[in-house]
Design brief:
2 domains; 4 strands; Growth Hormone, Chain: A; mainly alpha; two-stranded antiparallel sheet; Sugar porter family MFS transporter; Sugar_transporter_CS; two-stranded antiparallel ribbon
Length: 474
């Protein structure tokens, strides 16, 4: 009997893992789309004759769309279902892929911006609803690692698109060159987005609805069938009853303003603060200057692929570490340990820029191999720290820390804060780094310290808890 039960548990976990991988595909598109734009943005600027500000708007339009998608998706998923929202995401992604590629002929620069906003709404919705959906599907003992697949899929999306970008550029020489059917290379890069978009549409059609949503709508038999496929719980009736007791018509239809006035407002504030700290720990800032750091130790543009491989390797090691240990040592401990490593790494980069010789008003590390190696080493440590902790674990905590009654609306607030702070950081970083690289990284290091202190003081551990116990965190 025990052996049969063990087999049932493993089978249920495999089914839950498959569902989680599919629900995380929005993150894969997010990473893929970001790297495609990274390779195409210079050519986009040339094609539409853009200035620096207009190019920046084109680059950040996806983040703006993601903010809108994040804000509305959680509440919509409370009304029509998590799976239904994920099913609706695919056409948004496909719209950007197809019409963004043909934007020079359909409406020019403003139409391209619109396409990026529409695509952003899609992946903003997917990356908001996905973690909550996985949390509601997954068995508690492996819930953390399943939600953490989101970070791994972002990395794989970035890496695959990076390979495609490099392949295209090596074959044609310039992303503005016409390579076939009258399309420039950057337009073909955009068309490559069709592949993950179609894959997302096909695969999300195969997943079930969230059992918590089904219980909220009184569809108990359907909820029991879903739980039976992903859980080896011997008494599903008791499980359904526990879920039902945490849900009622009054709370599941709460507006955002009502949530902010409720007894859970402090818990929501913690989620929003964690979202802000994830961005303020410097992820976009460090990578903005990474090319200069690698050039200082000999990784020039001709070795871009080796640089990409090195960064990706550290990312994968970090996220695999996080996936492996998040359900063993806990979300809180990983955030604290990862935050400490991030802080030390940022402080090291800041120190390098502080002591580097100044050339034309800016620190220059290109003439010092030692400073270059120290900076690159700090960058790699930063990658390990972020991808093993704040990268994946924010999504885990966001997906599971909120009670059933407010999960959709609270996820919208936390994910919206993540996109908003991301936009502000990306917008202001070029100005900050031009003002003072050393001061900028010291500020990031300070935010690293603050993130650790905040986690120690305010975040409660959720590892191994049923979602029906999250009300106790308020």
């Amino acid at each position: 009997m025990a052996t049969a039960q063990a087999i049932d548990v493993r089978a249920a976990q495999r089914r839950a893992t498959r569902i989680a991988l599919i629900a995380s595909l929005g993150a894969f598109f997010f990473g893929f789309e970001g790297m495609v734009l990274n390779g195409a943005i210079r050519a986009v600027g040339t094609t539409f004759e853009l200035g620096a500000l207009a190019k920046g708007v084109a680059g950040s339009a996806g983040i703006i769309g993601g903010l809108f998608g994040a804000i509305i998706a959680g509440r919509i998923s409370d009304r029509i279902g998590r799976r239904t929202v994920l099913n609706m995401v695919g056409p948004f992604l496909l719209f950007e892929a197809i019409f963004g590629a043909f934007s020079p002929w359909l409406g020019g620069y403003l139409f391209l911006v619109l396409c990026r906003v529409i695509g952003g709404i899609g992946f903003g919705a997917a990356t908001t609803v996905g973690p909550g959906y996985i949390a509601e599907i997954a068995p508690p003992r492996i819930r953390g690692r399943l939600i953490a697949f989101r970070q791994l899929e972002i990395i794989l999306g970035l890496f695959l698109a990076g390979i495609i970008n490099l392949f295209v550029l090596e074959k044609v020489g310039s992303s503005t060159d016409v390579v076939g059917l009258g399309l420039m290379a950057w337009q073909w890069m955009f068309l490559c987005l069709i592949i993950p978009a179609v894959f997302f549409i096909v695969m999300t059609a195969t997943i079930p609805e969230s059992p918590r949503y089904l219980v909220a709508k009184g569809r108990y038999d359907e909820a029991k069938k879903v739980l039976a496929t992903v859980s080896a719980d011997p008494d599903l009736d008791v499980r359904i009853d526990r879920i039902r007791k945490t849900l009622n018509a009054e709370t599941t239809t709460m507006s955002i303003s009502a949530i902010l006035r409720s007894k859970w407002r402090g818990l929501v504030a913690v989620g929003v603060a964690l979202a802000a700290f994830q961005q303020l720990t410097g992820i976009n800032g460090v990578f903005f200057y990474s090319n200069s750091l690698f050039e200082a130790v000999g990784f020039d543009e001709s070795k871009a692929f080796q640089q990409t491989l090195l960064i990706t390797a550290f990312k994968i090691v970090g996220v695999v570490f996080g996936i492996t240990f998040v359900d063993r040592i806990g979300r809180r401990n990983l955030l604290i340990g990862g935050g400490a490593l991030i802080t030390v790494s940022l402080a090291t980069v800041a120190t390098v820029f502080t002591i580097a010789p100044v050339v034309d008003g800016q620190p220059d590390i290109s003439h010092s191999k030692l400073l270059g190696y120290v900076a690159v080493g700090a960058l790699c440590c930063f990658i390990l720290g972020f991808t093993s902790s704040w990268g994946p674990i924010f999504s885990i905590v966001m997906g599971e820390m909120f009670p059933n009654q407010i999960r959709g609306g609270a996820m919208s607030l936390a994910s919206g804060a993540d996109f908003l702070v991301n936009f502000i950081v990306v917008l202001l970083f070029p100005f900050a780094i031009a003002w003072s690289p050393s001061a900028t990284y010291w500020i990031y290091a300070m935010f690293g310290v603050m993130s650790v202190i905040f986690t120690v003081k305010y975040l409660k551990e959720t590892t191994g808890k049923d979602l029906e116990e999250m009300d106790e965190l308020a």
